């Protein structure tokens, strides 16, 4: 029997994984090519849909940021790279750091940020993955930005090699950099414009940096209140906030907008399941215990250390103190709804009976904190879609015979009814 092997790149991981060992008699199943132009528009639309749902300002496309983003997407795919940094001399090199690439694209301000995902085969997966990656989520939900450029690229022959790049900036800072360099009395800063020596007085810089913050929410929570179809899982990002976990639950975050808050103290941060029971296997992260020192003193994250359940509602409660007053927040969100029958696999070897002429969801529930599917093997004529690194959608037609699905030390024997 001919077997198809599909290597799963971590869909929510910034770093690409090594290529699989393809054994004799096994073929590698390639993904179909993307409509790159359509996915680029879709990525921008999805990001703005989230920001608008949170009462945040949408991000307007800036052509120069778009040039920088597309150039880096081309570089990542061509050189099979997954980093925010480029190496001089390689094809499509336009600058070592994100700000170098925006300068190359003639963007006036150097105060830019960049998010990227590789081996994400759609805008939906790219955005979902970056929102599960907490540092990148905060980048997308920055209340001071108002413009963005999106770049998407894919290798036409090796379609698993793809990249989505997002470069964000503040148009008011650009306006300052286009004005005459400050030469009056008072404090000023430099190294914030394309020309390093360009001076900006500190008052103007602060106003430009804060102008959008005052129109964005005082408290930015994600998943946002009443959000639907929230993913259940977080895998990894670079840098990794949970280096000791390969798989965990989708993180919940709170950011206190520093335009409105000088000092804030988080008193409690609690997650409840659909039965009203508190989820206690969690890790609360703030600026004091963040292993990568990326979080500000206004940013807090609650990591469920086990995957959330599909088709479920969760409630979040946050209590905080500011200006001598204690306040409580509460909201809920709903996780991904699966419309096909769900089969949860909890052992390394199991036998399932699946009906033909329909689709089934096979969820390999993690048995430990590093338990993900890799190098999955199945019959070449079987229609399999990977929803994430623990979940498969299997479509069975009337001619499908009994089969096995293998992944390292796991095996599922499927009897077709």
TrEMBL record:
Question: What range(s) does the SCP domain occupy?
Answer: 46-166
What does the record list as coiled-coil region(s)? none
Q: Which CDD domains match?
A: CAP_bacterial (cd05379)
**Source organism's superkingdom?**
Bacteria
Signal as a keyword of this entry, yes or no, is: yes
Print the keywords alphabetically. Signal
Q: What is this protein called?
A: Putative periplasmic protein
- Signal peptide boundaries: 1-19
């Amino acid at each position: 029997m001919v077997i198809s092997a599909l290597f799963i790149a971590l869909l929510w991981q910034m770093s690409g994984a090594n290529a699989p060992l393809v054994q004799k008699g096994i073929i590698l199943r390639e993904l179909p090519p993307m409509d790159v132009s359509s996915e680029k528009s879709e990525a921008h639309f999805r990001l703005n849909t989230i920001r608008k749902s949170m009462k945040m300002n949408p991000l307007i496309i800036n052509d120069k940021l778009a040039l920088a983003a597309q150039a880096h997407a081309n570089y990542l795919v061509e050189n099979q790279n997954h980093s925010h940094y480029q190496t001089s001399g390689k094809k499509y090199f336009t600058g070592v750091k994100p700000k170098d690439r925006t300068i190359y694209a003639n963007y006036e301000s150097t105060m830019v940020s960049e998010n990227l995902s590789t081996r994400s085969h759609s805008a939906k997966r790219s955005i979902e993955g970056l929102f599960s990656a907490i540092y990148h989520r905060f980048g997308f939900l920055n209340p001071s930005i108002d413009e963005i450029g999106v770049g998407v690229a894919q290798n036409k022959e090796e379609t698993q090699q793809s990249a989505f790049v997002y470069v964000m900036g503040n148009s008011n800072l650009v306006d300052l950099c286009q004005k005459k360099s400050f030469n009056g009395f008072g404090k000023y800063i430099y190294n914030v414009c394309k020309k390093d020596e360009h001076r900006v007085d500190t008052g103007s810089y602060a106003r430009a940096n804060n102008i959008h913050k005052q129109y964005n929410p005082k408290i930015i929570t994600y998943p946002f209140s009443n959000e639907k179809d929230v993913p259940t899982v977080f895998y990894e990002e670079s840098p990794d906030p949970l280096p000791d976990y390969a798989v965990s639950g989708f993180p919940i975050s709170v950011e206190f907008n520093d335009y409105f808050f000088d000092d804030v103290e988080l008193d409690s941060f609690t997650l409840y399941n659909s039965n009203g029971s508190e989820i206690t296997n969690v890790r609360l992260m703030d600026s004091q215990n963040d292993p990568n020192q990326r979080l500000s003193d206004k940013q807090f994250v609650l990591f469920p250390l086990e995957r959330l359940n599909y088709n479920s509602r969760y409630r979040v409660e946050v209590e905080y103190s500011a200006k001598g007053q204690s306040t409580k927040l509460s909201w809920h969100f709903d996780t991904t709804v699966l419309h096909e029958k769900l089969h949860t696999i909890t052992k390394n070897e199991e036998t399932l009976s699946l009906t033909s002429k329909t689709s089934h969801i096979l969820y390999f529930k993690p048995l430990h904190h590093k338990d993900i599917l890799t190098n999955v093997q199945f019959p070449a004529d079987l229609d399999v879609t990977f929803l994430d690194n623990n979940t498969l959608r299997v479509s069975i037609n009337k001619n499908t015979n009994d089969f096995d699905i293998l992944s390292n030390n796991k095996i599922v024997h499927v009897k077709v009814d």
